[in-house]
Write a structure and sequence with these properties.
heterodimer; A: alpha+beta; Ubiquitin-like (UB roll); FAD/NAD(P)-binding domain; 5 domains; 7-stranded mixed sheet; 6-stranded mixed sheet; 24 helices; elongated; B: mainly beta; Folate-binding fold; 4-stranded antiparallel sheet; two-stranded antiparallel sheet; 1 helix
Amino acid sequence: MTKYRINKTRFVDQTKTVSFTFDGKKYHGFEGDTLASALLSNGIHLVGRSFKYHRPRGIMSCGSEEPNAICQINDNTDLTEPNARATEIELYEGLKASSQNCWPSLNFDIGGINNLIATFIPAGFYYKTFMWPKSFWKKIYEPLIRLSAGLGKSPTQPDPDIYDHKHEHCDVLVIGGGISGIISAKIAAKNNLKTILIEDKNILGGSTIYQNNKNFIIDNQKSNEWLMNEISELEKLDNLIIKTRTSLAAFHSYNYLLAKENISDHLPLDKKNGSIRQRLWKIRADKVIVAAGAIERPLIFNNNDRPGIILANSVKKYLDFYGVSTGLNNIIFTNNDSAYETAVSLFEKGISVKIVDIRKKSSSNIVKNADDLGIKIYWNSTVVNTFGYKKIKSIEIMNLSEDGSNVTGNKHKIQCDCLSISGGWTPMVHMHTQSGGKLDFREIDQVFVPTEKSENHINVGSCNGDFELEEIVKNTNNKVKKFLNINEGGFDKISVFCSKESEKKNIWLLPNTISESKTKSFIDFQNDSTAKDIKLALREGFKSIEHVKRYTTTGMATDQGKLSNMHALGIIADTAGVKMGSLGTTTFRPPFTPLTFGAIVGRSVGKFFDIVRKTSIHEWHVQNNAKFENVGQWKRPWYYPINNENLHEAVQRESKAARDSAGILDASTLGKIDIQGSDASEFLNRVYTNAWLKLGIGKCRYGLMLNEDGMVYDDGVTTRLGENHYLMTTTTGGAANVLSKLEDYLQTEWPELDVYLTSVTDHYSTASICGPNSKKILKKLFPNKDFSDEAFPHMSYQDAIIDKIECRIMRISFTGELSYEINVESKYGKSLWENCIAAGEEYKITPYGTETMHLLRAEKGFIIVGQDTDGTMTPIDLQMDWIVSKKKYDFIGKRSLYRSDTMREDRKQLVGLLTDDPNEILEEGAQIVSELDKKPVEMIGHVTSSYFSPNLNKSIALAVVKGGKKMNGQKLFVPMENKNINVTVSDFIFLDKENKRINA
Amino acid sequence: MFVINCPYCGERDQSEFSCGGEAHIVRPKQPTELSDDEWAEYLFMRKNIKGVQFERWNHAHGCRKWFNMVRDTSNDKIHAVYKMGEKPPVI
């Protein structure tokens, strides 16, 4: 047992030793310890350096509010975790922890020089200093700032841990396993409500579980003993799920809550293996009872940040829960009664203790108790300074003036090795406000408390501003009964005896003899912002609390200002001379404590990150060495390299083959919508720009679909299969959106139309065969079919049978070549494809991918929606006037084509571009200019598609250029990083303008 | 995340739905008769109010039906849901 482990408690098993390392040195603690309590039991207070001034900092609290003791856990590249709070890490065998933000070591930190030059780096220092000279920003300032930014180190390897998500529904969710949470959960569960109780610590009981003081009695037992019995009864209840090590992350609307359960973080490394690390619970609760408790406030005075300065209740918890003394010569500095419990507890363990209280007196039982024990109390006094660089050694105190605004009399120096501070309590209203709840300010003890309005959640216990034991127990019982509409709470006749505080006093910034500019009174310990920073911000004209927060960075560290926000508000209110309640608070956003990315993502990693869609022919592509491209969720063959060909070489070969003999493309991914109903023709007539009423059965037609704003939305070929039956194809990426859009119009604007839509994209596989020899291949595949132009003309469809399999053959073309698309049910896709390959062998049929498809269609000047259009192109801009019906009275987007803006002649319009050097290939996305010397350079357009055409033996490109329609033959420039490329505007149909090949 | 009472399926999580913006904007029957300003009013102008708003919602990952919903945008309270074509309730 170490010098500081002075007490045996039931919460720490002192028979089970656990070894761990801190900054490489080995120490021992016990099972039940946190890293913080184990370090303190070894006499270690100094655990980190502050962010800005690199001041030595020690453990300050015992919970999630901890601003200083944030450590790096583990040192391997995949599991290491920065900014872990030592106060929340349960000790396990082999734990490796290290301090952060110090170099070369915690004890000797070069960055400590910032502390000496602190006067020169106040709030806003960065904003003011790094403004000039401008050229310094990129090379000097930014790298410097990046070097000093952040605290710990991120892992550099993927996270090997497994994370889980779980959805849960319940009647009542109780947040917090302290005394009020336990009472609430018991009332709910006993009344047959499915109840979940979550608690972020590993055991229930909150701060009452170690209260152990004769001034706090429930039903004739000490409060801790009474609560212990309640917990053991609670564990017997059937319809209650108790989740410890589970912290609430977010409280969203409609009682939807996220909670993170730590499953294996506390286990030794050898026992963790394979188990889930954390689970994110997604809970929908009918009713929520928030019993989140309160956090003790620090006091703000000069040099209030030294190691050994600890919140008073935390000192008590280390002593009575972990059995660890934070010092052997303790001084308590307080403005309220709660710290006297700590004093009594310390005294009872034989530790020297004195009290400094800013109040003039207090008449409560607990204070009388302390007084009776002979504990020295300095009334009406304040600490004005502290001494000791790496650990507190002594303090100076002075008397307060009558109104508390100043100090009087002589300084009095007292030796100590621990200073326990208590500035009162802040109710944890975060959950309440996250769910949309509002707050009221209570003047008497300067706290924000929840305004109860919601029918779906209540706050009980100290998070509701009930701080005294009797209030907590009785109000919780009454509120929960009313909230859950229950007559008998089970705690109706309870008797509670407790010490009551009647004298209250609070001073946000304690006065001093020396001027404020020379003090270091820390408010936000983690981000090193002080009272003078707040005042500076106010002097510089910041008024809103949100602005002051951002300018000074108060409350913006990993602890999110749990200890600092109220003091910042208080000092702003006092300085500006306004009421604190009128200032409001900053917004408390989720998560309450940091969440790991792993918990957020859950199992959606690796191959589960997104759905992968493959066509039924996919395996063939893989076997034939296809390189794939992602198109939406689809994997599409991009190109099929042979003998180490690169993309360019493969595409040149594939596209030449398609024009010279035959090519085959897997077109199964195109969106397909089956349209049926007596008004199907009328419907198509309204959604496409061209006319559809006279399309014959068995015919195909290309259609262009606009948004109501006149911009091109999608395109594709639609086939009339029967009198009232069409098959529409859409772009691969647009399929889902087109279906949604069509459903929207049918359901909302034209409900009178008799039309039914079914997505059949996955139902059919499509092999598209093109090229001058395609007809011969089709004849081989379908020997009984007449493929003459008269019997089977371009833009028509016929049913056919292959291997007893029914299929549809569409004679349509996206390449400009003679071309057939064969559709079969998906399950026959691969067999069809293999038949086609076999039949085409004598013609050297060449499978081609999306890249060749893009090239072939670009040679013909066919657009790809989404590549050559971007949601700002009308069909007129695309020079597709031919497809826009002049006769139809209306179609989606028609009226917008006559808006003054869409009729402008200087809109970007689709053109062809030819490079003066036919071997120069433009970059897609490159900007186009007409005058190189004009300043600023005016961008008049950009390249949308660009390829080297092996069939034309030159580079071709599509582009959109302002007023491009009238620029045919004009010379333009494409400026690149190292050169300007000379181009000439051309027709965008580069090949076979007369469409002879389609019937070749 | 809201719980939305789909008029066809009942209560479901918001994640199953998509919002289609302001409700009761009827597509003009004779667009060609409208001036640019009148057409722009239909096409672009939305109220986007803080408070009670009438919205279109689609049960996209469910029955795929469109319906209308009355929601207070300031606190996300849902006052009513009703089918397309039904008269909006008075809130």
